[in-house]
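dumping this here before i forget
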Amino acid sequence: MEKILVKADTRPELGKGGARSLRRMGMLPAVVYSGGQATPIKVHGKEMSKLIFSGVGEHALITIELNEDGSKTSEHPVLVKDYQTDPVSDELLHVDFIEVSLQEMVEVMVPLDIVKQPVGVKMGGILQHLLREVEVECLPTQIPDKIKIDASAVDIGHSLHVSDLQVPEGIKIVTDPGEVILLVSAAAVEEAAPAEEAAAPEPELVKGKGKEEQEPAKEEKKEK
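structure:
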């Protein structure tokens, strides 16, 4: 895994006003948490935004080269703990790092990457990608950028589970092995339009009796 190095400086600028001032200068306020202590730092905004939004920095081990008051530098292996973005512009506003030991296991989320499409999709099926990352446990130096998935054998009506994943030695998957990563369902068949109902026979017309069909009047009694 390629080493990711981020240069940083300790920062005296604190509070919302200080943070805004840093962003105007192209810097980004951040904090490194280590052993119960929090160290405010500043990093280059564009560099960190590119790292975070590429999807790499959010999961990878990062080495912060910290310049302390211009007198000395020190390296700190960290993971991204959290970050804040502007709800409107999506601009990166703040990052929290947590320092880790290179000799102790950590649990991190790693993205899944489908490198071979299911055969069921080629046959007209519909791919449903349900799980896009899994949690793994490993040493910080062994964190994979992503876990590749060969789903070529998945046919229509079948699925691929976390238990089907293959990972390098030293990496343990923590996510429930029974969770479904993807499945291929049959394409929905459009129902044929129902046949037109046969026209109902017109009711027979019952002719009313006309004047000429009325019963003849009773004959008048003959006069005696």
